[in-house]
Structures are given as C-alpha cells and as structure tokens.
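Record type: monomer structure entry
Structure origin: computed from sequence
Chain ID: A
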Amino acid sequence: MSLFTVDSNNVFGVGVQEAGKYNVKIVKAEVGTTGRGQQKLTLDYEVVDGKYKGGQIRYQVMTWDDEQDHLDMTVKRFNTFLVAVGVKDGAPIDTLNQIANGVVNRTLAVDAEWGDPNSKGNVYLQVYGYHKVDPEGSKPNGVKRPNGNTTNTPANTQPANTSTYDNNGDQIDISDDDLPF
C-alpha cells in the first residue's frame, strides 16, 4: 500500500502576489475568541479567476465587538460581508457559528491590500472590503508585497515555481539527492 499518490493539483506554489480586488470563494470559516474575550470569525479565501486563480488569502479575522461604542460598526461590517455573499434582507443571525456554517463555498469579491509587518517583519494580504462577485473578474492592482519580502513568505502566498515553505514561512530546501525518484 502506498503512502499517497502524487497529485499536481495538490501543491504549494499558487500565490497572490499583488493587492487588488479579487473574486473569491470562502474555503474555511471558523469561530474563535480573541485575546480580549471577543468572538471572532476567521476566514480563508481562494481566488476563483484571473492570473492568481487558486491562490489563497488566509487568516482573515472579523471580530464581533459588542461594546456600545463599536456595536453599530460591527453590525455594519458583518452586514456588508453577508450581503456580499448573498444573504437576503431580513435573515436573522443568531450566532457567529451560524455564519461560519453558512458561508463556506460562497463567493464574493474582496478588496485586499498589504497589511502592516508582523512581529517577524513579514507582510501579508489583508481583506478590507466585501462586495458581490465582480462579473468583470478579479483585478490585481500591481502593488506587490512591500520591501520585496519573499524570503519568509508562507506556503499559501509563495511565488509560483520557487522554493517550498513550511507553515511558519521558513524555507525548506530539498536537494535532488534527497528524493526517491
């Protein structure tokens, strides 16, 4: 019995290398809690068309902030997201779990820009806006990752046909001598 079967459709390498507006499918939605005890919805998106088709924009967090000063903006942000994925007016939303269970495999368009560097100096795409799918397709805007930060690029955004990276963004070097074929 073999360990697994090689599948060219199940590889790292397709990454989103530019900011822009992308038509995406939600491939993962999970509910969790922030360090401040607020509920959050973490979303992973996959681009469905254009030159970055198959590339992912991962770990996008929407926080439910029910403090009086922030509640109106929170409701507006979640409404904008839900309308973009096609939820109809008047639909009651009871929990973030209800949203997470209902949005996987739904499509929408997102505005993605390069975020601020994290504690390791890495810069990743962040989603800042939600829209209905754009019938004209995804529109990268030409803005590449700031500072040419590609040495610690995570697997989901690495340049196509280059080195392989682990989940921490560290490069994995494998020589041809290490391969069994």
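Annotation 1: DSSP finds two helices and eight strands in the chain.
Annotation 2: Residues 148-163 have pLDDT under 50 and may be disordered.
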